[in-house]
Design brief:
alpha/beta, globular, 5-stranded parallel beta sheet, 7-stranded parallel beta sheet, 12 strands, 345 residues
């Protein structure tokens, strides 16, 4: 039986992982704490660790895992910016879940956008107090608007399909354009500058890399239309939060819908309702009437949780079974994408 130390556990994680673990003879030990330099010794005696977006898999953690005999780090997410991929080579296998439910994330992005532009969150609060006034509740149609989509992978393409259903025009940007997506009319690939200049709404669906870090910054925001709406359900550090805050105060940004935040690691997924938040930027963003923040929950659907567990268990089984794992990461491949032609070491 394989033994896996499961870090940053939440109640909704357990059912699916226990189900698929039992089927594949994998025993999970669930730890509520995050994986980092201080907690890595909890992995002693385990064959693998299973981690999420806010766990730390840096050089120090990787070296200690290697010393403890841990063979695999199984990411139960698509992003891998929290992993030192180069240092992991030759020490531990890194596997991930490249696609669990693109519909979950894309639909959440649309839900946040509609909530914001139609003032649904404000209406909910008002009517709970039996205030049925419509003053200050005017929104705008999505039909006919131009949405800029940065990142056209699985999630980005689903988001684009939904936008087209609303009758929106799409300006898309991706370093690696998807074949057949650009129809020259309602969906068109363009350069970033044009996307910033012409989009009424901008939605982020790209991974966090050195190139995309703070892709939304003071300069890019300055190029945007006055009143642009920003949606981010991807990675927090794609957006310079301080620059965004200043742009909102200057009324350059009309609204922001944030499911992620660049300094979320010590805040998101936890209950701080009885505490004072020490992050002043986050506190000020949340206080803004035109900002909606959700706690990195875009992935959180029954379908996605099931897919995450099933794929993660399959990844672990394939690595320890001696075969090739299609979802194994390798820093040597182009852009640190899937390395499907080798076992990495």
């Amino acid at each position: 039986m394989l033994k896996v130390a499961f870090f940053d556990t939440k109640p909704y994680d357990k059912p699916a992982f226990q189900k698929y673990g039992d089927e594949k003879n994998i025993k999970f030990k669930f730890f509520e704490t995050k994986l980092n330099e201080d907690t890595v010794d909890l992995a002693q005696g385990y064959d693998a660790v299973c981690v999420f977006v806010n766990d730390t898999v840096n050089k120090e953690v990787i070296d200690r895992l290697y010393e403890l005999g841990v063979k695999t780090v199984a990411l139960r997410c698509a992003g891998f910016n929290n992993v030192d991929m180069k240092h992991a080579f030759g020490k531990v296998h890194i596997v991930r879940v490249p696609a669990y439910s693109p519909y979950a994330v894309a639909e959440h992005a649309i839900a946040m956008l509609l909530t914001s532009v139609r003032r649904i969150h404000k209406a909910y609060i008002r009517t709970r107090d039996f205030n049925f006034s419509l003053s200050g509740m005017t929104g705008f149609d999505l039909h006919g608007k131009t949405v800029g989509v940065i990142g056209t992978g699985r999630i980005g393409r689903v988001f684009i399909d939904i936008c087209r259903g609303f009758g929106m025009k799409v300006l898309a940007y991706d370093k690696f354009p998807a074949e057949g997506l650009d129809n020259g009319d309602t969906v068109r690939y363009t350069k970033l500058d044009e996307l910033f200049e012409k989009s009424d709404i901008i939605s982020l669906h790209c991974p966090l890399t050195e190139e995309t870090y703070h892709i939304i910054n003071r300069d890019s925001l300055e190029k945007c239309k006055k009143g642009v709406v920003l949606v981010n359900t991807s990675r927090g550090a794609l957006v310079d939060a301080e620059a965004l805050l200043d742009a909102i105060k200057a009324k350059k940004v009309g609204a922001a819908c944030l499911d992620v935040y660049e300094e979320e690691a010590d805040v998101f997924f936890e209950d701080f309702s009885g505490h004072i938040i020490q992050d002043d930027v986050l506190a000020r963003l949340i206080s803004m009437p035109n900002v909606i923040v959700s706690s990195h929950q875009a992935f959180l659907t029954e379908e996605a949780l099931n897919n995450i567990a099933e794929t993660t268990v399959q990844n672990i089984t394939e690595v320890f079974g001696g075969g090739r794992c299609a979802n194994e990461m390798c820093y040597r491949s182009n852009g640190a994408e899937d390395c499907k032609n080798c076992k990495c070491f």
